[in-house]
Amino acid sequence: MVFPLSSVMARLEMLYTSDHASVVSMNLFVALLCACIVIGHLLEEHRWMNESITALVIGLCTGVVILLISGGKSSHLLVFSEDLFFIYLLPPIIFNAGFQVKKKQFFRNFITIMLFGAVGTLISCGIISLGVTQFFKRLDIGSFDIGDYLAIGAIFSATDSVCTLQVLNQDETPLLYSLVFGEGVVNDATSVVLFNAIQSFDLTHLNPRIALQFIGNFFYLFLASTFLGVFTGLLSAYVIKKLYFGRHSTDREVALMMLMAYLSYMLAELFYLSGILTVFFCGIVMSHYTWHNVTESSRVTTKHAFATLSFVAEIFIFLYVGMDALDIEKWRFVGDSPGTSIAASSILLGLVLVGRAAFVFSLSFLSNLAKKSPNDKINFKQQVTIWWAGLMRGAVSMALAYNQFTRSGHTQLRTNAIMITSTITVVLFSTVVFGLLTKPLIWFLLPQTKHVTSMAFSDPSAPKSVTTPLLETRQDSDGDFGGHDVPRPTSLRMLLSTPSHTVHRYWRKFDDAFMRPVFGGRGFVPFVPGSPTERSTHQWQ
Amino acid sequence: MVFPLSSVMARLEMLYTSDHASVVSMNLFVALLCACIVIGHLLEEHRWMNESITALVIGLCTGVVILLISGGKSSHLLVFSEDLFFIYLLPPIIFNAGFQVKKKQFFRNFITIMLFGAVGTLISCGIISLGVTQFFKRLDIGSFDIGDYLAIGAIFSATDSVCTLQVLNQDETPLLYSLVFGEGVVNDATSVVLFNAIQSFDLTHLNPRIALQFIGNFFYLFLASTFLGVFTGLLSAYVIKKLYFGRHSTDREVALMMLMAYLSYMLAELFYLSGILTVFFCGIVMSHYTWHNVTESSRVTTKHAFATLSFVAEIFIFLYVGMDALDIEKWRFVGDSPGTSIAASSILLGLVLVGRAAFVFSLSFLSNLAKKSPNDKINFKQQVTIWWAGLMRGAVSMALAYNQFTRSGHTQLRTNAIMITSTITVVLFSTVVFGLLTKPLIWFLLPQTKHVTSMAFSDPSAPKSVTTPLLETRQDSDGDFGGHDVPRPTSLRMLLSTPSHTVHRYWRKFDDAFMRPVFGGRGFVPFVPGSPTERSTHQWQ
């Protein structure tokens, strides 16, 4: 029993082999996923825990058990696979984020979100890089060049706001939710783009021309990725509207939506763009157009299927990170100099805290200056929440760290091992400790009073919560529901919305006059008797 | 452009590598999948075509294009991966089959289905093995032992009834559909079990003891696999009923159902059982119990998500088989002796035709003897349809052939290459030619008159088609709908059902008295206001 199991574990990355060994590990993994879901459900009402931490802890425990069973021999329990993460696990999470986001809130706070997500990440990266340059020289870690320092900055600027989003409520605190959520996505994309830019540019000879190229490259990636996502989304809407008109087939529609979403991600990778941004915008466009062109069954199915895939992928990642954390070989080097490793991890954690504080409070101040209504301003408690919400570091950091510190091969084994273990330490510590404190902190900072919820009243989509009880389990991704098959004049809603949002109003006009007639969308596709819901609501009217 | 693309293609099997090469091939593959869905939809009304053939043809064309672009150099365009097929593509197809099957029809015809599926496959395997033993000796192919001959029998007994099922209609010809469908699943399982048994037993020294062990092993696999599937299904029903009671969460429910279904397959592989049978029975149990314990959104989602996954996996397989068919290296050996290869393929095709005819007509005769009502008997035209419906050979045959003829390594290169190319030829020919003739043949044999549909009248679930218009797009997998949240006395339905089905009646009693109260099921879980459908129908009553 002892030896086979450990040798089994070493092979989980070879998922494709039909070896009995890998079958055992897949069984273990799927069973653990089930356990995480059930335990996560049981702990749902718990004050501190959430699903991510549960998965991480279960992963760690499993790692310990396997380590004990194998008598400490298994040095490669599970190797974190960057590709598994970036090709299979991340796309459904980000796509679902775009698909389920409340677009109105997101676009209203677009500038603030971009400030936090893009500029904030750059600030954070700069501070961490600078700090690391200063502090790491005093530690006996090894030699880094400027590219390494900047890469460390990018690695530890990638937040993982999954924990926080499980705690924040989209309906109770719409502004905060959209800020934290939007920032999380943009931040992921920014870190990855930044990381790739750092790796591909020779930064040892920095001059203005290279710096300019670097910035240009950065913006090109941003815009091109967004465009590709929007294009793929519109294409899916157009194809489904044109081809499926009149004779819908739920399975084909759902399959086409899934495949097109994945295609957008892979196309971005093909053109060396940011797949994260692409698939995020593809999700937004799909929920705005494509989703309205399909039958009611397809809508329910896509909504929940995407959410489920994203949910499973998240748990998978945390379980994976937890199990991977106990790879003995990496820790061996650290065992020789525990002080160095602890110092490095502490410095990194400290820099993460400082780097995030620096941009959250300064950019909030900037953002508040531009706003007139006190309701739209971000108050101090909310700023603290935003700061805290982005302190967790997760799988993106892990994946980037593996990429940076294993590609130079085994020439710098000790340095690499220390950096990887420090990353694992920061990820585990921030997720577990900061994560556990999130629920109490949010309850302390944002008690369930109306002063938070009241912010929702400035949002014209707020009446939604009054109309939705009829369609309870479904959150409309469009901010307005109740009559999606009845074309309504939007003038009343325009009057309700604050006059300052001129861009939004022009967009609505353009959307109604050109986009929706071509690509479909709420109110612009004829009624399709495809499902019980639509049938019954139709007969009711 | 010329060289990179060919080198790219050679690496599609390395799906995990993030090489740009594999990104290109994944893009190509996902785009082709989308194309297959769209073209399949456009050709839906076409007289001859169906989605499988479309995918196969598109795959072949893509193979040709790549071959031309690479100047005939690319010898390994795409290598068919047995593991990809058995671990990722087959489980969703078979699970969905169990999940969507009309259980009443299936269990009514259980004995006939088992006759066709198990005994018929054995007969077919025997005939093909015998024929191959006789005919292949005269061809200059190479030396086979008795294990090889039996393996060839098993390989070419595995039918692929996907094509036919796309043509047959579950509502119009319920008896035929359930026979062809049920036989297809049992046949897949039987072939795989048989194949594994042949490989693991040393059949060169056949004696009664080994033969008895062989038969015992076969039955053990059958029963143990079924039990495991039923157990996992019931476990999922129990867990969801107990834990989720009162506070449902669609995403968790859907995730748990998916993971448990997959777990059943992997557990079967773990215990060296037949995953196909296990996951099929898990699907049946899940649709009978678990499916009724979840919210309405979860029901719609699981129903369509499973169907979509299965649909995509099917297209994937056909595309894959089509693209794999043009691997030059295999065909090189054949080029030296085209006559031998054509002769081998023709012999195999002929044996497939004869082997299937032998058991379909004889077993139909046996089955008809046992039935009293003329409506339940299988008439000659239906027998011909059943015979034809199982002539196609598909991915299971390919996978088994690869397993048998590549594992002996490169010691018998020529023999292996001829057998693999013959398998490809049989698969392509039977799928395309027989497949194209299926629609016309079925229209010829079974014109859309009432004499076929009338058989449905003996089925108490027939009134369903009267109640369903309200809930149009959903096919109830339980044969009775319209009031799934209202516990109804079943006495009326029992009176309606033919009195001869005593087993079924006792099962219903046991089900109502013990199984449903414990595991949930239609009418035995309290009403859960989880979705618009249930809300509105509830308010209507």
- From the spread of the alpha carbons, the general shape of chain A counts as globular
Cα-atom radius of gyration of chain A: 24 Å
What portion of the residues of chain A fall into strands of 2 or more residues? under 5%
Percent helix among the residues of chain A? over 70%
**Uncertain regions of chain A: pLDDT < 50 for 5+ in a row?**
1-18, 449-500, 529-541
Alpha carbon gap, first and last residue of chain A = 66 Å
Assembly form of the protein:
homodimer
Mean model confidence by pLDDT of chain A: 75
Largest interface: A-B, 73 and 72 residues
Explain briefly what this protein structure is.
Chain A has 541 residues and is mainly α. The first copy, chain A, has helices at residues 2-9, 20-42, 51-69, 82-100, 103-108, 110-136, 146-155, 162-167, 174-200, 208-243, 250-270, 275-288, 296-324, 328-336, 338-370, 380-389, 395-406, 413-445, 450-453, 464-467, 491-496, 502-519, 532-540.
Describe the 3D structure.
Chains A, B: This is Sodium/hydrogen exchanger. Chains A, B: Belongs to the monovalent cation:proton antiporter 1 (CPA1) transporter (TC 2.A.36) family. Chains A, B: It is found in: Membrane. Chains A, B: The chain crosses the membrane at residues 20-43, 55-72, 84-101, 113-137, 218-240, 261-286, 306-326, 347-366, 386-405, 417-446. Chains A, B: GO terms for molecular function: potassium:proton antiporter activity; sodium:proton antiporter activity. Two copies of one chain form a homodimer. Chain A is mainly alpha-helical. The first copy, chain A, is built from 23 helices and no strands. Chain A has helices spanning 2-9, 20-42, 51-69, 82-100, 103-108, 110-136, 146-155, 162-167, 174-200, 208-243, 250-270, 275-288, 296-324, 328-336, 338-370, 380-389, 395-406, 413-445, 450-453, 464-467, 491-496, 502-519, 532-540. The longest helix of chain A has 36 residues, at 208-243. Chain A is globular and about 70 Å long. Residues 1-18, 449-500 and 529-541 of chain A have low confidence and may be disordered. Chains A and B meet through helix 2, helix 4, helix 11, helix 13 and helix 23 of A and helix 2, helix 4, helix 11, helix 13 and helix 23 of B.
